[in-house]
Specification:
The chain is α/β, with parallel strands linked by helices and 270 residues long. It has eight helices and 14 strands.
Length: 270
């Protein structure tokens, strides 16, 4: 029997091992970055990694502000990231868990909203999104899961995703390096196929696109620092706000503030 849905948000996404600019590996993936953003709210997080990396993620999971459920799999996503003031090159070293409809059923998700945080195109296939929609969930989705092929090597975004995925998405978060998605024929023929799009622009804020109409949301201040994870924080904070009754404009301002708080903490720790 399907659980009764209550207003709220569940986040699904793989953990990853990130090596940034040849430094010591650190936890990555959406669940590694959003703890501060959800610390004051009841957000359920379900993640996945290989048991062999349990010790690597133990400190992160032990200090997480809310209980976190972990699916044990044979795969942990791994990335190496090279940054510069104007660019970022990402190498995929290992592909993470492929979430199946049976994973969704086993998770017994009881929130109205679900945020999917894929790291590559294989993380959440169409069958899994369809399972979420059949269960009555609203779906927020990070576009990197559309434009990143699950192939080891340098990640080069493309728009070769299954267009049927778009019909399962209520909110799509797109960043600068994923804007190739707008070249997809489904967007060209029907700009309203996804009713709500978050187009994040880093220090320039974000554009909220609803039914083809765009509103620019500027950050209250700009912080220049290593910003890996800021987009994930923005997307989750936005989806949480929408799940708890805020309109798109209010949600965008709250998401901007959450991302700024995350980057401020990073600056203070350096």
């Amino acid at each position: 029997m399907a659980p009764t849905l209550s207003p709220g948000l569940t986040v699904l996404g793989n953990l990853a091992i990130d090596r940034i600019d040849h430094s010591t590996p650190t936890p990555g993936g959406c669940p590694a970055f959003i703890g501060q953003a959800i610390a004051r709210d009841k957000v359920r997080v379900v993640t996945s990694h290989s048991p062999e990396h349990a010790d690597f993620f133990a400190q992160l999971l032990d200090t997480y502000p809310t209980p976190i459920d972990t699916i044990a799999t044979t795969d942990t996503a791994r990335f190496s990231i090279q940054t510069s003031p104007t660019s970022r090159e990402i190498h995929l070293e290992a592909v993470g868990h492929r979430w199946s409809p049976s994973d969704i059923e086993a998770a017994s998700i009881d929130t109205t909203w679900v945020h999917l945080a894929p790291l590559t195109r294989s993380d959440f296939p169409l069958s899994t999104l369809l399972a979420l929609k059949r269960a009555g969930h609203k779906v927020s989705y990070d576009a990197q899961g559309l434009v990143r092929a699950p192939s080891v090597g340098v990640l080069s975004p493309d728009a070769k995703f299954d267009a049927l995925l778009l019909g399962c998405i209520d909110i799509l978060k797109v960043s600068d390096d994923e804007e190739i998605i707008f070249e997809h024929q489904s967007f060209l023929s029907n700009p309203n196929i996804v009713h709500e799009i978050l187009y994040t622009k880093g220090p320039d804020g974000a554009h909220i696109i609803e039914h083809g109409e765009s509103t620019h949301i500027r950050p209250s201040r700009v912080l220049r620092c290593q910003n890996t994870g800021a987009g994930e924080v923005f997307a989750v904070a936005y989806a949480l706000s929408r799940a708890t009754g805020h309109d798109s404009l209010s949600s965008a301002h709250r998401a901007n503030q959450a991302a700024l708080e995350m980057l401020s903490t990073r600056l203070c720790q350096n």
